Amino acid sequence: MAVISTEKDTEALNFRLVAEFDAGVERVWRIWEDPRQLERWWGPPTWPATFDSLEFVPGGRAAYYMTGPDGEKARGWWRITGIEAPHRLTFDDGFADENGEPVAEMGETHAVVTLEDLGGRTRMTMTTAFDSLEQLNQMVEMGMEEGLKLALGQVDVLLAEDASV
Fold this sequence. Notes:
- InterPro entries: ASHA1/2-like_C, START-like_dom_sf.
- It holds the Pfam family AHSA1.
- It comes from Arthrobacter burdickii.
- Residues 23-159 form the Activator of Hsp90 ATPase homologue 1/2-like C-terminal domain.
- This is SRPBCC domain-containing protein.
- It is a single chain.
- The radius of gyration is 15 Å and the shape is globular.
- Strand 4 (61-67) and strand 5 (73-84) form a beta hairpin.
- By secondary structure, the protein is α+β, with helices and mostly antiparallel strands.
- An 8-stranded antiparallel sheet has the order 1-2-8-7-6-5-4-3.
- The protein is 24% helix and 41% strand.
């Protein structure tokens, strides 16, 4: 499995996940910038994602939904706050209603993704910051850690397909 560690830091109000992949940094970067590749891994296998839009530029927005096993849709949004290709991506993330509008009572989180070259392999560190301990605990109770692990477990297959071409 790609995920090598997770850590919930209640003092710093963040959740950090570290994963490593058998692919170069530029290739791993593409799984973030290409909406069709994002759809292949963002969300657990039982909740696949569909990106209605992705403006992969600073200030750009993304709108997506994940479809559950019973057809239920969970919508979300991103606001891209920084891009330093191919090593660093920052974005705000939140839940959305059926019209794609942010659900204010759920708050928003702030993600920092860094990609490090390990001599042809890539270490990805994803740190999600929360506005409060209650928000952090709520997201963990909703299955954030397991969902991210399952989602990132799909990346190896995506990268392996590309390597065999």
